[in-house]
């Protein structure tokens, strides 16, 4: 297999997730850009040399996990498939392609049967939200979702995390610091993230929503409504913000269910029994999900479940998950495990 982007924030976690996985791996090729070719990464205690990604890198590869920028995926993923590899891509490059399944295995593994070589891994903030909502949808039906995210800086890559740390130190020391990455590398302005909240993730669209907000809307529909990114079955709207947390996104989710007899206890039960979810919901003992406790874990943590007191069938929840693991590296490796178990690990 190959890991493309093996030196990045997600790629390094992919290495760890592959080490811990059930996959029968013969060898792993570590690929990145020319910049890091020749550097070493560790895999199962062994030092492997990082190679520059070229089309021929994929000769003899059965499975390629990509976590690079969208343009790099667009260039190399079809080359990998041409050479017989199944690609699991962690960028937004192919997510809205009707021929590419967009998969969170616990929610829609059936969609894997339709793959033609490329499978898309959803955006981190979408994954943890559908993980929290799917058990509720299965039990009570779901008609509307309003989400506000509080996302960790590592979602924007290793340079963004470094910027938060350096900027926090500079701020405490009373020194000047000029941000160059956040909120969005390449956008016109950069703002301080340390001790601050930025209501911008990814670039703005003409309608005033950010690209991240639209990803949450379309991806949620594609995953939960049988592949239809424009489905009316579930209404979704989002506000995405970045908080000065290194790892693990938090989300405040307001939702309407179809069954107006739904109860908080019933929702708690559904979440408790759903693979990959952990219920942390005990207000009397101040138990609720927190990013600091979710870092390094593969699960989605759900709590603060409570009814809207004025609207029957409407509820709030709070969910937290490691954006680099279930939000990215673990979900990708889990897709590979499902493909293997379903005998679909071939083009
Ligand atoms: P490199 O370390 O050589 O720049 P992050 O999300 O943390 O920013 O990481 C991005 C990952 O994508 C890194 O592993 C980076 O490698 C890799 N990458 C960036 N550009 C390319 C490219 N043109 N070809 C292959 N890998 C790339
Ligand atoms: C962030 N959610 O936190 C983004 C990163 O489409 O896979 C993931 C971007 C993507 O900045």
Automatic annotation (TrEMBL):
PANTHER family: ASPARTATE-SEMIALDEHYDE DEHYDROGENASE, DEHYDROGENASE, PUTATIVE-RELATED
Catalytic residues in the record: 124 (acyl-thioester intermediate), 249 (proton acceptor)
Quaternary structure, from the entry: Homodimer.
Family assignment from sequence similarity: Belongs to the aspartate-semialdehyde dehydrogenase family.
Chain positions recorded as phosphate binding sites: 95
Pathway: Amino-acid biosynthesis; L-threonine biosynthesis; L-threonine from L-aspartate: step 2/5; Amino-acid biosynthesis; L-methionine biosynthesis via de novo pathway; L-homoserine from L-aspartate: step 2/3; Amino-acid biosynthesis; L-lysine biosynthesis via DAP pathway; (S)-tetrahydrodipicolinate from L-aspartate: step 2/4
Catalytic activity of the protein: L-aspartate 4-semialdehyde + phosphate + NADP(+) = 4-phospho-L-aspartate + NADPH + H(+)
Positions that bind NADP(+): 7-10, 35-36, 154-155, 323
Entry EC number(s): 1.2.1.11
UniProt cross-references to CDD domains, sorted A to Z: ASADH_C_bac_euk_like, VcASADH2_like_N
Keywords, sorted A to Z: Amino-acid biosynthesis, Diaminopimelate biosynthesis, Lysine biosynthesis, Methionine biosynthesis, NADP, Oxidoreductase, Threonine biosynthesis
Superkingdom assignment: Bacteria
NCBIfam families, A to Z: asd_B, PRK14874.1
Domain Semialdehyde dehydrogenase NAD-binding: 2-115
Function: Catalyzes the NADPH-dependent formation of L-aspartate-semialdehyde (L-ASA) by the reductive dephosphorylation of L-aspartyl-4-phosphate.
Enzyme class: oxidoreductase
Binding site for substrate: 151, 242
Protein name: Aspartate-semialdehyde dehydrogenase
């Amino acid at each position: 297999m190959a890991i493309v982007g093996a030196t990045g924030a997600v790629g390094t976690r992919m290495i760890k997730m592959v080490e811990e996985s059930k996959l029968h791996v013969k060898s792993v090729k570590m690929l990145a850009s020319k910049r890091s070719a020749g550097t070493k990464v560790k895999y199962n205690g062994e030092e492997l040399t990082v190679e520059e990604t070229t089309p021929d890198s994929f000769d003899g590869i059965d499975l390629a996990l990509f976590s690079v920028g969208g343009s790099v995926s667009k260039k190399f993923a079809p080359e990998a498939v041409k050479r017989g590899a199944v690609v699991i891509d962690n960028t937004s490059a192919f997510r809205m392609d009707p021929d590419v399944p967009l998969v969170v295995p616990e929610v829609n593994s059936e969609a894997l049967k339709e793959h033609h070589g490329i499978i898309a891994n959803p955006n981190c903030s979408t994954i943890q939200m559908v993980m929290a909502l799917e058990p509720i949808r299965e039990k009570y039906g779901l008609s509307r979702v309003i989400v506000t995210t509080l996302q960790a800086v590592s979602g924007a890559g290793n340079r963004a995390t470094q910027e938060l740390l350096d900027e926090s130190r500079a701020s405490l020391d009373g020194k000047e610091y000029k941000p160059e990455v956040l909120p969005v590398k390449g956008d016109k302005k950069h703002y301080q993230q340390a001790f601050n909240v930025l209501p911008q993730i990814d670039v703005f669209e003409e309608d005033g929503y950010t690209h991240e907000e639209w990803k949450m809307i379309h991806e949620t529909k594609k995953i939960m409504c049988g592949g239809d990114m424009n489905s009316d079955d579930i209404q979704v709207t989002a506000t995405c913000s970045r908080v000065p947390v290194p790892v693990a996104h938090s989300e405040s989710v307001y939702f309407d269910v179809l069954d107006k007899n739904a109860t908080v206890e019933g929702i708690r039960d559904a979440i408790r029994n759903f693979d990959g979810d952990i219920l942390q919901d005990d207000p009397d003992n101040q138990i609720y999900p927190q990013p600091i406790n979710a870092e390094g874990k593969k699960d989605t943590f759900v709590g603060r479940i409570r009814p809207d007191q004025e609207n029957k069938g409407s509820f709030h929840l709070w969910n937290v998950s490691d954006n680099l693991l279930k939000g990215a590296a673990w979900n990708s490796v889990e897709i590979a495990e499902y493909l293997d178990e379903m005998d679909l690990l071939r083009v």
